[in-house]
Specification:
Elements lengths: L4 H6 L2 E4 L3 H12 L5 E5 L27 H4 L15 H14 L6 E3 L2 E8 L2 E7 L5 E7 L1 E4 L6 E2 L13 E4 L13 E5 L3 H13 L2 E5 L5 E2 L22 H7 L9 H19 L23 E3 L2 E2 L2 H13 L2 H4 L4 E2 L5 H6 L3 E3 L3 E5 L2 E4 L4 E3 L2 E4 L3 E2 L5 E5 L29 E3 L4 E2 L4 H16 L9 H15 L9 E2 L1 H12 L12 H9 L16 H10 L6 H16 L1 H4 L6
Helix pairs in contact: 2-11, 6-16, 7-14, 7-16, 11-13
Length: 578
């Protein structure tokens, strides 16, 4: 039932955390007329993981985002101009501008840590630690948005004999630069996107550096060349289109509705149109700088990393050995800046896993051993919510994420036994695309639910179980990344719930916009073309401002392969064959 304006204004909502997720949660709540919002942020400023501090868990000195600015930005404040990868300080400035533009700071209590949340649906009691160190009961809230982030507790594997290690042990969360690693014998455990930078920087100054992994990663250079025949030198995430995701990145079990068939027809038509009239997608001009603001003529494939036959062959080999192509989806490491140091021998790799540690020696499962006086764990984080207390109301249901796995939440947001009054926002990690854009979409739905303009599905528990089974199978090569989703698949499913679906057929008579929507980059801004909170002119300008990255020939070839994939009789008979 839709709430009256007075009922909506009377809602009291608590937002935990003022990082990217918390900021957009406040903004989307305000858009729906919910203004009695109190956000508690333990740091002195907004920014979350992007709030830099020498003694604070967060970004390191040279961190550059793996997602370009147009995919990292919120749809209600898209960037303008050149598409590039922000340095962490530039993204922090963007969040500051967002906070100022929408007057969000007045809702935030800085230096305030949430100690406990207890109660039941619609009746949540919140206790905080104030800046002076005193505990304070902030009373009862109608709803809670948990936006505390996925970087609260480090994930450090248990290695036999680690207690006997005589050297230094640290987690990547405390890494800022490589100064203290000069002359050391280092073993770096794990390879994600931050780890790719960290192991490279360490290997630049260490006496020896070994990269220890359990399997090969699937690598994506952040600049498209030389992996696609286009002259743009653009960010590789420029290829995240409706068409390409339909081809590559979605479990077919999600695609069984007539609308998906219509969209495939529209994408095919757009690809043909673009092939015949290439000016609809790109002006054909070569920019002077690539997506890392480097000389676009120098053939870089990543930040400071030039294309070379040996490096390119290594990237291809690791991708093939990762198993993604044959057995299912895997989290992609969108950073190859370390590859040159592997080729040069400054980084040696071992993919068998660590068996044990003895003194200053690391033993691997394949029998190899390495001298080590510095062990660096780049092994990610665990999702923890220590402030959630007791059970849900009078039920025998713990107030927690079931099994500690956000896939047990509806769309990674809502506990089936709690409903709409508590939302976990920011716990969706797309295989391509930005976490903040997903947090924004989750926040839009949360705000619409609280305002009474939307309702959760009646069979939410069943739908959650179905998605859990499907995604667990599809992303089985990355079993530890519970937040992982397909970007287009998840965003489109949320757009259905919000009511901001991108109906491609509606734009056929606007051919330039139509081509950009179908075969151009899948920008968050397109989810503002229609529906609640629509900003059609802003969205249209953002979509048209970014050139289509693939060529017309590539787009037609991808359309052909998409039809082959979906019309394969063996796959048509399966529900979720991948």
């Amino acid at each position: 039932m839709k709430r009256s304006e007075s009922d909506t204004n009377g809602l009291r909502v608590c937002v935990i955390g003022a990082g990217a997720a918390g900021l957009t949660a406040i903004k989307q709540l305000k858009d729906q007329g919910i203004t009695n919002i109190e956000c508690f942020e333990k740091e002195a400023e907004e920014g979350g993981i992007f709030l830099y501090g020498k003694d604070k868990n967060g970004v390191y000195d040279n961190a550059a985002l793996t997602i370009s600015n147009y995919l990292m930005a919120f749809s209600d404040m898209p960037p303008t101009g050149h598409r590039f990868h922000w340095h962490h300080t530039e993204y922090r400035d963007y969040l500051r501008q967002y906070t100022h533009k929408f007057d969000l700071a007045k809702h935030i209590s800085f230096g305030t840590t949430v100690l406990s949340v207890a109660g039941g649906p619609g009746h949540w009691n919140v206790v905080v630690r104030e800046p002076d160190g005193e505990a304070s009961d902030r009373g009862v809230f109608d709803a809670i948005a948990v936006c505390s982030g996925a970087h609260q507790a480090v994930n450090q594997p248990k290695i036999p004999g680690l207690e006997t290690f005589n050297g230094e042990v640290l987690h990547s969360s405390s890494y800022k630069n490589n100064v203290s690693f000069a002359g050391k014998h280092c073993v770096c455990v794990g390879l994600g996107e931050s780890a790719a930078d960290i192991v490279r920087e360490i290997s630049d100054v260490a006496s020896s550096t070994v990269l220890a992994m359990r399997s090969y990663p699937y690598l994506i250079p952040r600049l498209a060349r030389p992996f696609h025949a286009n002259p743009l030198g653009c960010s590789s995430d420029s290829f995240t289109s409706h068409l390409r995701h339909d081809l590559l990145n979605v479990p077919l079990g999600h695609y069984r509705r007539i609308r998906h068939f219509i969209n495939r027809v529209m994408c095919t038509f757009a690809a043909l149109l673009y092939f015949l009239l290439p000016w609809l997608g790109s002006d054909g001009l070569q920019p002077s700088e690539d997506a890392f603001n480097q000389d676009a003529t120098e053939n870089f494939i990543d930040k400071g990393t030039r294309s070379s036959p040996v490096s390119n062959s290594l990237i291809y080999a690791w991708c093939n050995w990762s198993g993604q192509g044959e057995r299912g989806q895997k989290f992609a490491c969108k950073n190859v800046t370390f590859v040159d140091n592997v080729v040069a021998g400054r980084i040696r790799t071992n993919v068998s896993g660590i068996a044990r540690v003895e003194g200053e020696t690391v033993f691997f499962q394949d029998g190899c051993q390495e001298k080590c006086n510095c062990l660096v764990f780049c092994t990610g984080y665990r999702d923890v919510f220590p402030f959630l207390q007791g059970n849900v109301g009078g039920k025998d249901v713990p107030l927690a994420v079931p099994e500690g796995n956000v896939r047990r939440l509806y769309k990674h947001i809502f506990h089936p036994d709690i409903g709409q009054s508590m939302a976990w926002i920011g716990f969706v990690r797309p295989s391509t695309g930005g976490i903040p854009a997903c947090a924004e979409m989750a926040s839009r739905y949360f705000a619409l639910l609280l305002s009474g303009k939307r309702q959760l599905p009646k069979d939410v528990a069943q739908l959650t179980a179905q998605d859990y089974e499907l995604d667990s199978r599809y992303y089985r090569l990355s079993p530890d990344v519970k937040t992982l989703v397909g970007y287009k698949d998840w965003m489109d499913s949320m757009a259905d719930l919000v009511g901001c679906q991108v109906s491609l057929w509606k734009y056929v008579l606007q051919p330039k916009l139509f081509v950009h929507l179908c075969v151009g980059s899948l920008l968050p801004a397109q989810y503002r073309l229609a529906g609640p909170g629509a900003m059609p002119e802003t969205a249209r300008a953002a979509v048209l401002s970014v050139p289509v990255a693939p060529t017309g020939t590539q787009s037609c070839a991808e359309a052909f392969r998409a039809w082959q994939r979906h019309l394969d009789p063996r796959k048509l008979l399966a529900w979720a064959e991948e």
